[in-house]
Amino acid sequence: MTVLVRYFASARAAAGVEEEKLKLPEGSTVADAARLVRELHPGQLPRILDAASFLLNEVAVRDQNRALSDGAQLDVLPPFAGG
Question: Cα–Cα distance between 26 and 24 in angstroms, integer?
Fold first, then answer.
């Protein structure tokens, strides 16, 4: 299956791309996608992923064991500073 991963803020800078399509086996989870992203971008991105939040099809992911579906959109949101 194919999942579109979109990166925001520092995650985008660390990945070097705004978005990319990942090919994953059927039955893959958010955790599986994050593991593949870590392998594809071993520099700064793994550290950012440790603190990042994820949206799956625009809904916050609380459990990274949540299953992905073909054509899903996974957003990587690093922590944002603000006040």
Answer: 7
Look up the pTM and report it: 0.93
Strands (E), 1-83: 2-7, 19-23, 53-56, 59-60, 73-77
Give the pLDDT band of residue 80 (cuts 50, 70, 90). confident
Q: Which residues contact 39 (CB under 8 A, 6 or more apart)?
A: none
Round to whole Å and give the CA distance between 76 and 6.
6
CA distances from 23 to 4, 51, 78, 79 (A): 9, 24, 23, 26
Give me the pLDDT at residue 82, please. 55
